[in-house]
Structures are given as structure tokens and as C-alpha cells.
Amino acid sequence: MRVSEAFLGTMGFGREWGWGADVDECREIFTAYAEAGGNVIDTANRYTEGASERIVGELVGADRDRFVIATKYTLTMDGSDPNASGNHRKNLRRSVEDSLRRLGTDYIDLLWVHIWDAHTPAEETMRALDDLVRSGKVLYLGVSDAPAWSTSRANTLAELRGWTPFAGLQLNYSLVERGIERELLPMAEALGLSVAAWAPLARGVLSGKYTRHGATEGSRIKLDDISERDLRIAAEVDAVADDLGVTSSQVALAWTRSRHRWIHPIIGARTHEQLKDSLAALEVELPPEAVLRLEAAAVFDLGFPQDFIAMAREFVYGPAVNDFEPRR
């Protein structure tokens, strides 16, 4: 399936959570994204308590087949019912049927498992997902917010048993949150999985609105809740942006794409202007020295065993390890 470089995130489509966009603003955002060539609309059953899916379905309308609609299941829609959440077969069936009704469509292009569920065996989840693919109600599968070991095990089960594997991951990734570089990104590269990066602006921290202007009205987080470390990283993003003559948001988004082209930032916007600024990041090519400068400001430890393996490299292979290129 062919997807655009950036995905449109619709977590803020609807005012039910108090900070999103109304329907008219959503229409402007959607139209601008589509006119720029974007084709992936990312939503979830729980986003704005179902309003996001309803708005997406209305906006896509008669052009349904031109768009890749991605939605999610796992999160509860009824906290009093123990079977209304999780990755088991019953919740999957109900969630997908409800999403199809809200979206006004008879199939979902990409269904994400929203988060790892320790209470459901992987075999049950993968078989139930495969049944949906075989029924035609879902075309492709992905998994969000799950450990690398659980994803690789699930795809191994699918490969061995002839079930549909996960084709992509949805993960939190930004200069502020680089943890997926430890296990998840290497796994994605080894298994050929694409990555959809959520919160690439770290919920606005890397947009410049806190470091340049202070917190703005309608922000999801308060300035006092942002750590000194994160503000230092944001200030370095601002400095690189000033040097390049672009905005802070564009630098932060361009960085997420600098490591691999198969990492797709999910662009969320509450206004048409925010979306236009983010889309312009696709034209920004960060110089290598700028990438190094940003990563030096956002340095973090890979931890064990990655740091130990790197430290022991010459001890393991001998000096000859420096004479050959690693397999890619």
C-alpha cells in the first residue's frame, strides 16, 4: 500500500475533549492536507469519544477509495464493562463494527492495535485480526505502543501460521523522546516495518511556542510541567531553525525523517495555519552538522545490552572489525 510521507493525525478532530478543532476547521485542515498530496488519515475509536471517526468519515465522503483510513482499537468505550477494552476477539469485533459505522465505510485500510495488552495471548489477537483481513473488513494491520519483543513474537507467529502480519508500527518519537532507538527502530529495520511517529513535536514543546513565546492559550500542557532538559532541547531546535531560516516545528519534523525515509511523522493540527507550517517541513533537508547538533542536545543512553555490545565490539571481533563494512 502506497502512503504519503506524512500522515494526518485527527486526535483533535472534534471539541469533545476541550482542545480540538470544530468541524469547519477540520474541513480546512483535511482539504489542505489532501491538496498537498497527503493520503493517510489516522484516527481511533476513542479519539474525541468517537467524534473524530465521524468527522473523518464525513470529510472523506465520496472520495473514500483515494484515502488510506487508519483507525485503532483496544481502548475502552465503556469503563464499566471489562470486555469493552483490550486486544481480545470480543472487543476487536465490537470496536471494528462500531468504527465502520462511525466512518461510514465498509472497510478499514489499516487497523492499529492501539497498545499492548498483557492480558490477551498474542495467538488470539493475531488470529482474530487475520479473520478480519480475510473477511475484507480490514486490509492491513499495525501495532502501536508495544514492546519490541511482543511485536516480533506476534509477527513470527503470523509468519509460521500463515496469518496476516503487522506491516507497521506507531510509536512516540521526537528529539525529546528517542527511546525507540534502543530496540524498536532496529526491529523495524530488520523486519521491514514502516513507522508512524506520533507526537513528533512532543505535544508542542518543540514548536517554539513555549521557548519563544511562553505557553499559549489552548495548549495541552503547561509551561511549568515541562522539564529543564526538554526546554534546553527545544531551545536548540529554535537556534537551528533560526540558522536555517525555517520554523522550529519544521526542524523538529525534519529531524524525525532524517534517520530513515520509512519513518512517517503524524502531523496533528488544530488550525489550518499549523498544518501548512508542518507540511512545509517535508521540503526541509537538515544538513548533517545540524542533525549532529540536535542529537548532541538530546543525547541519551541506549542502556544494556546495546551500550555493552558497542563497547565490546573490538574485543569480540578483533581489530579486523574496523576493516570491513557491516551488512546493511
UniProtKB/TrEMBL annotation:
CDD domains the UniProt entry points to: AKR_AKR9A_9B (cd19080)
Record keywords: Oxidoreductase
Domain NADP-dependent oxidoreductase: 8-297
Pfam entry (one): Aldo_ket_red
Signal peptide span: none
UniProt cross-references to InterPro entries, sorted A to Z: AKR_Detox_Biosynth (IPR050523), NAD(P)_OxRdtase_dom_sf (IPR036812), NADP_OxRdtase_dom (IPR023210)
Name of this protein: Aldo/keto reductase
Species name: Catenulispora yoronensis
Lineage: Bacteria, Bacillati, Actinomycetota, Actinomycetes, Catenulisporales
